Amino acid sequence: MLSVIRRCSTSAASKPAVYSHRSGAKTKAKKSTSFSLKTPRGTRDFCPAEVIHREATISAIKSIFTNHGGEPIDTPVFELTDVLLGKYGGEASKLIYDLGAEDGGEKYSLRYDVTVPFARFLGANRISKMKRFQIGKVYRREQPVVQRGRFCEFYQCDFDIAGDYPKMVADAECLKIVDEVVKKLNLGPFTTRVNHRSLLGGVLIHCGVPQEATMSVCSSIDKLDKESWNFVAEELQTKKNIPSHVISQLEKFVRFQGDSKDTLQMLEGEIKSPQVGESIADLNLLFSYCNAFQIAPSFDLSLARGLDYYTGMIFETVLTEDDLKTGSIAAGGRYDNLVESLTSRTKKPFSVPCVGLSIGIERIFALLQKRQENPKTITTEVFVASPQKNLLKERMAVCGKLWNAGISAQFEYKNNSKILDQLQFCEANAVKYVVIVGAQEAAEGVVKLKNMATREETVVKEEDIVEETRKRIC
Amino acid sequence: MLSVIRRCSTSAASKPAVYSHRSGAKTKAKKSTSFSLKTPRGTRDFCPAEVIHREATISAIKSIFTNHGGEPIDTPVFELTDVLLGKYGGEASKLIYDLGAEDGGEKYSLRYDVTVPFARFLGANRISKMKRFQIGKVYRREQPVVQRGRFCEFYQCDFDIAGDYPKMVADAECLKIVDEVVKKLNLGPFTTRVNHRSLLGGVLIHCGVPQEATMSVCSSIDKLDKESWNFVAEELQTKKNIPSHVISQLEKFVRFQGDSKDTLQMLEGEIKSPQVGESIADLNLLFSYCNAFQIAPSFDLSLARGLDYYTGMIFETVLTEDDLKTGSIAAGGRYDNLVESLTSRTKKPFSVPCVGLSIGIERIFALLQKRQENPKTITTEVFVASPQKNLLKERMAVCGKLWNAGISAQFEYKNNSKILDQLQFCEANAVKYVVIVGAQEAAEGVVKLKNMATREETVVKEEDIVEETRKRIC
Prior knowledge:
Chains A, B: Keywords: Aminoacyl-tRNA synthetase, ATP-binding, Ligase, Nucleotide-binding, Protein biosynthesis. Chain A has helices at 4-13, 48-67, 81-84, 90-93, 115-125, 169-184, 197-207, 214-221, 229-239, 244-254, 260-270, 274-292, 338-343, 361-371, 392-404, 419-428, 439-444, 465-473, and strands at 20-21, 71-72, 78-80, 108-110, 127-139, 153-163, 190-196, 298-299, 313-319, 328-334, 354-359, 382-385, 409-411, 433-436, 446-451, 457-461.
């Protein structure tokens, strides 16, 4: 495993030293060591350049969320275990981290996503209408695959619309938001595939899939973006015990070649069920709204999405020119029953339909980080230096004044440091100005202000240093 | 317990509806309910106004941290239990949340602070020099006292300086940073008390306190800011078994009346030990640097601070005019051995001296929130409305263009909504402009742009709407 420790060392070593390593050696934690300073399996430290890079990406996404009227909330990192259980489906539930039992008998688990906590928030506060976003860490006890960006602690970045609105309007806005995010971040060409849980369910019934096998068959079909039909058919037959005539029926629909309109027309012609008819009408309405927003998702009957809680429109966005095989960079859908299912066991049942999207922000971080220069991590504008020793307090006094004026500054900590070393720090960190406090100048109540780019030096009265510096920086 | 649920409901109800509650009733979770939607004991949800308020405060503090050359890092929310154990002292260790055991035998615990994770980060990466800040949630299994702001999940906001520097320079910079933070946030008059662990240790030895009782006696003495001398003396005698002649000796030093200079002079005169002499010299140097920074902390021999890892200067900042009895709003100190103690058990021992500060950000949030207006949580600048029905797609098209131009906009979701209801939303959320899409106007390819403050309406060609809106907003 490419350990965190190494990642941080490597990233710092490949750029001008942001902070100093006493040894350049890669300190990969060894298994044989009895005690290790590694982070827990599947978790990482983030170095300054990574944190700053991530914050910039998050900030760009946030501005789109707020442009759509989104409001931020924050929920605890752990929840009552009871709140999380049974919301995600069998496979996912095994990935939940539990905390040690509490004295009072309450059981807690780390959150698996921010969707169920949002539904709990809506239910607990009986909120009937809200556009909310939440960007925070979630936890899954998966086998980490660092190369593929799969970690046990990672960020989720969600926008959801709760409220009882006319059909498909909020759904279309979610797709529009994803479109804006991908374009704003310049992630390159992408496509959004859309399906409807109810339509997929109707097709499965029509093909003769038993009700209890629905989710299981969906999860096989969902693999069609990565696996061949033969692989999926084999899995349906051997692992899921689906009869071969049912599989043939499924194949006809799932592998139908045609654009969104053709496929929906074919389904409407072939399957005469109210469930199918209604969900096709929903999708046609959705596409007409997408048209108004000038976005063009495509229909894909094989899209299923893993989580149990989806009830209506579901979608997934992938980059189409992506050497890194990033996979989906956004996904989401409608979950009209989640709040109700949480509140139905309380004394105050409450229901609110919801639709939302999740930006695959970890994958986006990875993509952008490969593409971009490491950001500057130290933003010091002024360095206070001395060519002679014993001027430490004089430097501190000047630096203190700059800080009081809100100017980003540092001073040399050593009482006796070579001026060249001090200027080298300025070069390495792109510091723009150096205030030089000299013995003679100090006696005269002046300092030198040096422009690092032009090398120009100006003699400035000590009491004017803040004003003169500010003038130059602004 | 004032539950989270109620807090959110209350804060939303007391201001123009940011999001709609179906019922205004306070939905306090009842103990008798078999299933509850509450958050875990001692944790809270944060509503939009709270999140925005917190982010503004954090942003103000961050700008001071970066002005001092600080770089951000991020570490996992849980750590290997081994990393945390034995770092905080007996009482604190009991407050650590453990996660359920992992298959691989690794044991994890939620982080108790961000200092030990920083020390682990330094040790793992062998970083010999760094100014880092970290703002994140930490976890303590305390008995929550909501009224006093004591929670089990709360933010810590730390700035630390790692590096082998001349004595007391970085220590003074930490005190300067705290001074800037308190002033920038307008928290009112404050005082910073400073002590030296080594000086306190030397005084205890001089008084005859047995070595093994040092930490325990310190924790009693630390209560002198809240409790009387009699209370502390009683505790020392009955609970800590300190002989009364030792307590009398302690009293002489701890209760000495005088300013910082007098007290240090008295100690220097009374106690002839190299340990005491050296730490007094350290403190005098620290005060001379503080003088250069134009800040004036005071010496207080009774300040002890709870955590085991401190080795040198320690400090605590309290507000002096504070009706809310907030307690300390910043604290910190020097911990020169923490990194070494972590790495000494690995195959690559490494040492780096550190000094740092922690801003009591939760207390500051609480103080500022009481004082300030709730911030605007929806920042929509333009609302796209219709006076007639069946213009939904036309509204969507206009809104889509505004979003594409990065303008914050929303549209009415309903196909048939009263124009008054739409304008009421704008009033409630201080929306500045309304684009009115009318049937006749739509036929003519124009819309109306209404200024909500002046009520002025302008007819604008649909293709010019983005430009005309942007002109007005900027």
